[in-house]
Amino acid sequence: WVANALRRPMVAEPGGQMIYSTGSTHLLSAILTRASGTSTLLYAQRYLFRPIGVELRPWQRDPQGIYFGGNDMYLTSRDMVKFGSLYLNGGRVGNREVIPREWIDSSWTERTSSPWNGHRYGYGWWTRTSQLHTVRFAWGYGGQYIFVVPELQLVVVTTSDADSRREGSHTWTLHRLLDEYVIPAVLSSESSEGGS
Length: 196
Fold this sequence. Notes:
Blueprint lengths: L1 H6 L14 H15 L3 H10 L27 H12 L3 E2 L2 E2 L3 H8 L3 E2 L6 E2 L4 E5 L2 E8 L3 E6 L4 E5 L11 H26 L1
Antiparallel strand pairs: 1-2, 3-4, 4-5, 5-6, 6-7, 7-8
């Protein structure tokens, strides 16, 4: 898979219009595997997931044994909340730094935007605005989302049937649930607490 991704022809100049490619994230997994001398699974387990209380299960690997860098991690909703909370808390769990704050900020820095949906994109994280609040989100296949709204100290996850048809407005419906129900409920709760 790595060789196949590297053989692909350039279809646009670097720094131009966004072209999302899961092949690129698989290349990152291969680079991490070679640089660390261990699998992406073991590296992620040791330095990222075990410190936040998540036990990773193995997921799909390419024919050379490199864990797929694009998707298929099979995180539970609770795992996703823990990961989103790590980002919400600036990379810390209690007093322990798991991810440097600088990396959180860098991954959330908007570098391009999607020509299809208008969402802005950083390093693995998307950004949009809802109810005048910045929403950062990790977007998994078929409608698996981790929404982080730092100004509201809010993490929301959604899961969907990854085998369902992807046509239509399913993913927009998930965004609308956040926009029209969850965030207004949090804002209403904050205003009632502030007034009491």
